[in-house]
Amino acid sequence: MKHLKSLLVFSFSVLFLTTTFGQAKQQTADKHFEKLEFYAAAPIYSELAKKAIQGKKHSNWENVRKAAISNKQLFQYGKARYYYNKLHETNRLTELDYVDYIDLLRTIGLYDDAERLLIDANKVYPTNNFVQLLKDKNKQFAPLLADSAIYSIEALTINSDQGDFCPTFYNNGILYMSKAKNAGFLNTKYGWDNSYFINMLHSSYDLDSTMKAGKLLKDAFFSRAHDGPVSFSPDGKHMVITKNLIGKHNRDEVVTLGIYLYELQGEKWVESAAFPYNNKAYNVGHACFSADGKRLYFASEAPGGMGGADLYYTDYTNGSWSTPVNLGSAINTDQDELFPFVTENTLYFSSKGHFGIGGLDVFYTALNLEGKINNMGYPMNTSYDDFGIIALSNERKGFISSNRGDFIDRIYEWERKDPTILFEGQLLYAYTEAEVVPNHFVTFTDETDNQTDTLYTDSLGQFSTQLFVNHNYRFESQEQYFKLRAPLAIETKGIVRDTTFKGELYLEPLTIWVTLKVVERGTKKEIPYAKTSILSYLTQKDTVVITDAKGLVTIQVDRFTEYLAHASKRGFVDDETKFKTDSEGDKVIELLLQLPVIKKGDKFKLENIFYDYNKSTLRPESTASLDKLADFIKENKLKIELSSHTDARGSDTYNQKLSQARAQSCVDYLIKKGVPKTSIVAKGYGETQLLNRCKNGVTCSEEEHQANRRTEIKIL
Fold it and tell me: How far is the C-alpha of 400 from the C-alpha of 164, rounded, in Å?
């Protein structure tokens, strides 16, 4: 019994000690986590998470979540991914977990896995802005990854490979943040990742433009916590530094970031005034001066923003800093926007909330915030964190920080070349089957500089030229008998990658070629040296051309016009036909005119004879055909009967009288044109020689009646 009691006491003691020991671990891990001491918290949470994953009693799945977060903050992405995946498998991912896990997968380049998780997250949290952004803009991802020759980027030799970042221009070199230097034996390590606290180093250029090794800065540049980033006013007399603020929150000690302002007095930096908008409850930092030194841009987690850290600005007026202004939803998102830097015209910043390659990406936009938010793309951005960019005033060179490759921050020097922008065009005739225009000029106007130059097409109608960024161009060409369909306008605003524009200029023909072939009716035998003419109804201009030995002639006429083509030859009856040149694409119109051999008793219809309604007065458009008839009679010394016919509508007497008068009107005109009176007889037949069924009392169409209304010629 005594042994049993001893055993019970021992078992209870072991259970008590185990429980107490487990509770102590939990409390220790939670305390480290609250203080952002992830280096100490991560291994404890990993141990506690293992129990939850194995399903042991009294385990807590919150430890799995904190193990994922802690390892992610230490860039232990393999471990973090394992814990996030366990949360996902057991349907324990919160909305924030989804965002963090997707961000993790994109950072390590597992974009397919990230996309699958994105689809899942969108179903569970359809209103999440970050998830929706990635889903909506996923098609824009490939262009961001495309290697660009515009930017060249190279790591500085001064990097310590222990963490160097956020450079700023200072004293013929750069001042930058580094974890490489232990500032003194009293300076402990940082609990976040067990590294030295951040200090500032300065590296200047040698005479051969290489950078000297960085030297640790003291005095105003140094504290026993984090120091930096830093920015200087344009005149070099004012400085702003981000440092740690230590305060209390819910009785616990908290460390946040704050902004400190300094003024150069002689050769010494002296703190001038505390930034009035620091707050020990949240971070404020990453400040930089505007190009004129009158405005300060900074990041802040102040309540009331868009979410995460937002970018703000404040103006120095009347001896004090104005109430900060949030840069708005065009810049700020519900994620973090950090590390602003401004030139005279451009705002640069890093963000996780705008669509990017992964991690922090660097973006830029017009300083007036009226333009597009542009991702700088690869190689400036990677799937890792890219941040802390600075640029010279011309924005063609600068420095940037990145932990690409191995999650160690390094400083890179970058240079931007103007992208190569080409325009490759082709000049074409706009026929149905387009034809190239070889060896012809093309004018292009740089509307930005108001300069015009000339290019020439090659044998294939092609031409090319190089363009400049942020210019507007107009390409045109012209040629006799053609009009330009439309000029080509090219705008190169905002082009950041090598780009080739392609386009076509079309010359639309204003004329068309008409090929007339004159043959004998029936035999189709070619009639050489026949007289042909083409009359424009629009201009009343009559062009006369003689056919060649094969009875062919080609004439160039205007498009979109109505014409009358006529052919005559002694010993043959004339022939004519109306045609329109409405076709935009045809190059040639082919017409066949067939001339019957003159025979006594032959009759033919005289086309295009028009009278006023119910009158015998000839209309002006009838004269062209009558002129041709006069030439035909005189040329062949013929005697003819010119007869006029009506339809059956109206009385027989009226129709007979009207037809006779109309025939006489034609004869009178021909006599005026020199036809002897003895060579022509006017005869009106009224409705006595109908060509169809449309006699009195029969209902017919207007077309059928029209067939009976005609003027005929009979060879006597």
Answer: 10
Cα 363 from Cα 386, distance rounded (Å): 10
CB contact at 8 A, 550 and 625: no
- 660-679 b/e (C-beta count within 10 Å ≥ 16 → b): bbbbbbbbebbeeeebeeeb
Domain 151-416 class, CATH top level: mainly beta
What is the fold of 30-145? 1.25.40
Q: Contact at 8 Å (CB) between 104 and 121?
A: no
Domain ranges of the chain: 30-145, 151-416, 421-509, 600-716
Measure the CA–CA gap between 238 and 262, rounded to whole angstroms. Answer: 6
User: In this structure, what token pair is assigned to residue 351?
Assistant: 């963000």
Distance of CA 98 to the CA centre of its chain: 32
Gap between the Cα atoms of 670 and 606, Å rounded: 13
**CATH no. for 600-716:** 3.30.1330.60
Q: Which residue shows structure tokens 């016919």?
A: 645
Q: Does 640 have pLDDT greater than 90?
A: yes
The structure tokens listed for 380 are 């400036």
Average pLDDT over residues 205-233: 73
For residue 321, what pLDDT is reported? Answer: 94
Q: Whose structure tokens read 């008793």?
A: 601
DSSP H or E stretch at residue 466: strand 462-467
The DSSP letter of residue 622 is: G
Neighbours of 703 (CB within 10 A): 7
What tokens does 420 get?
A: 């190569």
CB 180 within 8 A of CB 162: yes
pTM value surpassing 0.70: no
The Cα 663–Cα 290 span in angstroms is 95
Q: Which of 666, 665, 708, 703 is nearest to 686 (CA)?
A: 708
Residue 4, pLDDT > 50, answer no
Q: Give, in order, the Cα–Cα distances in Å from 677 to each of 194, 500, 592, 645, 664.
A: 125, 77, 33, 21, 12
Give me the CATH topology for the region 421-509.
Immunoglobulin-like (2.60.40)
Q: Which residues contact 141 (CB under 8 A, 6 or more apart)?
A: 111, 355, 357
pLDDT in tens, 410-456: 999 999 888 889 999 999 999 989 999 999 999 999 999 899 999 99
pLDDT bucket at 17, cuts 50 / 70 / 90? very low
CA angle (641 as vertex; 640, 642 as ends), nearest 5: 115
Nearest-angstrom CA–CA distance, 447 and 449: 6
